[in-house]
Write a structure and sequence with these properties.
This protein is α/β, with parallel strands linked by helices. Helices cover 43% and strands 14% of the residues. The chain has 14 helices and 14 strands. The strands form three sheets. The chain has an eight-stranded mixed β-sheet, with helices on both faces. Strand 6 (182-187), helix 8 (203-213) and strand 7 (217-221) form a beta-alpha-beta unit. Bound molecules: 4'-deoxy-4'-aminopyridoxal-5'-phosphate. Residues 49, 113-115, 139, 141, 188, 193, 221, 223, 250, 252, 257, 262 line the site of 4'-deoxy-4'-aminopyridoxal-5'-phosphate.
């Protein structure tokens, strides 16, 4: 009989000594821990990146779903294909064609949101200590995955035109001089989360050329690409270098995140491994989610819905940048041409992380820039403001409240 060692674990968690090393790194992200306070009704939350679903035709969707279950319930409520539902894998290239990407249904792997696609890619390529290169800053949800796999996360700076090719090359060369091998470059070319910027057309082939020369796979994460406020599109890295890029897409921002349906398009050998890794993890993505989305794409004006989302988010972007100009002239910010986020630079000496509790007391929430960096104190001089969810009048009020906190910290 095994004796219980009273020294093991502690009262809060008797299994503390049993976790795998990777579990010790798991922490609630800065955005997650804010959710509870930020969702109080009196707080204007400029923190979360929740898509705004108020314009979705809920009654029509409910009827279509009911019809779909009646007609196809035997398949929609059953386990399905590990790579994803064949019909939806044919429809996804139609969505991608809007951005000029030519994808083969055979190369599509449907995932539980693009978040799972990031997870699978990381599982496939990263042993503990392996280097992943990202932009600085980058999407906090991917940083969480990368640290779970105990990656060594290195970041290359961006400016108003996205990642800076010279800096990317320098970062890679520096790592290679130390004998480090970079497994992939995780890149958000369109309407960056959190920085709101878009990689310029000029830089796209340069980024590809650099990664090719150093034999670095590119992970192109593009959930916001179709949300350009002027309806323009940008050349996908996938289009420029199909064999060097794993492309990630999602229905979360162009339809609804609750279905949890995203996808990857990968070169055939990688696609096969992704399919096997996904099957091992989840057997198959949600059949009912895939059937619902497939039904939506077949029966609704989804292109028109994307147009409507663009108009709605553009109005909110306008409300935010107008309010920033009116109330926060002491800060800097970019004017995003699509997506959900504005990246606000604070005046010298102010600290976004430290200021956050005062902002919440003043009934406004944001995400401190620190959440989007791999470590150290980087990002303290920035905050991410999301304009996707609140009404324009609330965005204005939120920015006004925030300006009071900034002014107080500046001792104005
Ligand atoms: N990538 C980026 C850049 C995101 O902003 C998000 C969601 N906020 C995701 C991936 C994950 O989205 P989903 O899993 O809903 O497709």
């Amino acid at each position: 009989m095994t004796e219980t060692n009273p020294q093991r674990g502690n009262r809060l968690d008797p299994w503390l000594d049993s976790y795998a090393t990777r579990a010790y790194g798991l922490r609630e992200s800065e955005t997650r821990s804010l959710f509870a306070v930020a969702s109080r009704p009196e707080v204007v939350s400029l923190a979360g990146g929740m898509p705004n679903l108020k314009d979705l035709p809920l009654d029509a969707l409910a009827e279509a779903t009911a019809r779909m279950i009646r007609k196809d319930g035997g398949r929609a409520l059953q386990y399905g294909n590990g790579q994803g539902m064949p019909r939806l894998r044919e429809q996804i290239p139609e969505v991608m064609a809007l951005e000029g990407i030519d994808a083969d249904p055979e190369d599509v792997v449907i995932t539980t949101g693009s978040q799972q696609a990031v997870d699978i890619v990381t599982e496939l390529f990263i042993d503990p200590g392996d280097v992943i290169l990202t932009e600085a800053p980058t999407y906090v949800g991917s940083l969480s995955i990368f640290s779970t796999y105990q990656a060594d996360i290195q970041q290359a700076p961006i400016d108003a035109d996205g990642v800076i090719p010279e800096a990317l090359e320098e970062t890679i060369a520096g790592l290679e001089r130390q004998g480090r091998r970079i497994k992939f470059f995780y890149c958000l070319p369109n309407f960056h989360n959190p920085a709101g910027v878009t990689l310029s057309e000029e830089r796209r082939p340069q980024v590809i050329d650099i990664c090719r020369r150093h034999h670095i796979l590119i992970i192109e994460d593009n959930p916001y690409g179709l949300l350009d406020f002027q309806g323009r599109t940008h050349t996908a890295l996938k289009t420029l270098a199909p064999d060097d890029v794993v492309y990630l897409g999602s229905f979360s921002k162009i339809f609804a995140p609750g279905y949890r349906v995203g996808w990857a398009v990968a070169p055939p050998a990688v696609r096969e491994k992704m399919k096997l890794a996904s099957e091992a993890a989840i057997l198959c993505p949600s059949s009912v989610g895939q059937f619902s989305i497939s039904t939506y794409l077949d029966n609704f004006d989804w292109r028109g819905q994307i147009e409507a989302f663009r108009t709605m988010y553009r109005r909110r972007r306008d409300a935010m940048v107008e309010a920033l100009a009116e109330f926060m002239p002491m800060c800097t910010w970019n004017v995003p041409e699509g997506g959900f986020y504005v990246w606000v630079g604070l005046p010298d000496g102010l600290d976004a992380k430290e200021m956050l509790p005062r902002a919440v007391t003043n009934l406004v929430a944001y995400v401190s820039g620190t959440a989007f960096y791999a470590g150290g104190s980087a990002g303290r001089d920035h905050m991410r403001l999301s304009f996707c969810y609140p009404e324009p009048v609330d965005i204005r009020e939120g920015v006004r409240r925030l300006s009071e906190v900034v002014a107080h910290d500046l001792d104005l």
